[in-house]
Specification:
There is one protein chain. This protein has 246 residues and is of the alpha/beta class. Helix content is 40%, strand content 19%. α4 links the parallel β4 and β5.
Amino acid sequence: MRVAVAGGTGWLGKLVVTAATDAGHEVVVISRARGVDLTTGTGLDEALRGVDVVIDVSNIETVSGAKAAAFFETVTRNLQAAEVRAGVKHHVLVSIIGIDRVEWGYYQAKLNQEKVALAGPVPTTVLRAAQFHEFALQSLTRFGGPVALVPAMLSQPVAAREVAVELVRLAEGEPRGQAPELAGPEPLQMADLVRKVARQHGPRKWVLSFPLPGKAGKAMKSGGALPAGPGLRGTQTFDEWLANLR
């Protein structure tokens, strides 16, 4: 099978590329570094030639809900329009658990992206995943200085590698709309995970937990980011992931 990975040079994208290659598929990496611009559509037609399925893990780092919404909707519409022209049969999208319950700008942008993809012209599968174990390290290192500020959040983190493998497995099957959610083995407080990373891996920082304002902060703190019901569960615990962190 010929699989295109949108955002394939990002840190999750690289894991998806590895998982797809290990599964025996021919992989096309879609990114600006490879001459393809998802926001304008430049290079998409050539990149998708002969592709059977697209896995979209593209992302934008922003605190602006409006910017995130514009990016995700534009990318999804450009991808699916090019997929129609190329004869792609399946669009697979990674999303986030709790975006229908946490009214935060970035989450609302991802929720809108799901709706656009599912209503689009290419049959779609959406996988909502919990925060990745790697999110704790990102929270610690995103900004310089001696203090890391972490939103008060109860999550059930999962290894990004396991999410990548599941995305490839879904890509191999028939489109199924909303797939079962994928979370990790246990619910944990995000600030506690960041503190563990600071102690055992570094950089050493004070980790301060703070609630986001309004309904979004209340929902995150009270479990809005936890899986809503039975579903897939990753096997690697956070402590196991941290023990292997280099």
